[in-house]
Design a protein that fits this description.
This protein is α+β, with helices and mostly antiparallel strands. Helices cover about 20% and strands about 35% of the residues. It contains two helices and nine strands, in the order H-H-E-E-E-E-E-E-E-E-E. The chain is globular. It starts with a helix and ends with a strand. The N terminus is likely disordered.
């Protein structure tokens, strides 16, 4: 009897492992979203609430499609059409100090996402003396 219980031990262990694996396979099923284990799903409505604004940075100016926005979350899609490296800094209500994008070289793009509250916002290029050369603008948020 002692010999047969030793042989059943590995068989029981294999059966238990198979049961666990089958149980886990059933957990993958038909979810409407998939996420990394450490993340929570992001509702589709949250992504839809961010407004994208295309901004062209040139030597030495910003071109925004409009200078009056409503409060909310914005992603500024920055495109460097100049011949010098540029970035965008923004300051205004609800922004502690200033927020700044990455500095990008000619032809590159980057993004800067901020939440805007009602008020006036200053935008400038924080690279070298670009602001002093006139690379700044402002817009209002209502």
């Amino acid at each position: 009897m002692g010999g047969s219980s030793r042989r059943r031990g590995p068989a029981r262990l294999a059966a238990a492992a198979a049961a666990v694996l089958l149980g886990l396979a059933g957990c993958g099923g038909s979810h409407a979203w998939s996420a990394a284990p450490s993340r929570s799903p992001v509702p589709a409505t949250a992504a839809a609430e961010v407004t994208t604004v295309d901004v062209t940075m040139d030597d030495f100016s910003f071109t925004l499609p409009r200078h009056d926005l409503t409060s909310g979350s914005y992603t500024f899609r920055l495109s460097n059409e100049g011949e010098s490296p540029h970035a965008m800094a923004i300051a205004g209500p609800g922004i502690s100090g200033a927020r700044r994008s990455a500095t990008i070289t000619p032809g590159q793009r980057t993004f800067l996402t901020v939440t805007l509250r009602p008020g006036r916002y200053e935008v400038w290029c924080p690279v070298d003396d670009h602001r002093a050369l006139g690379m700044d603008t402002a817009f209002d948020v209502r």
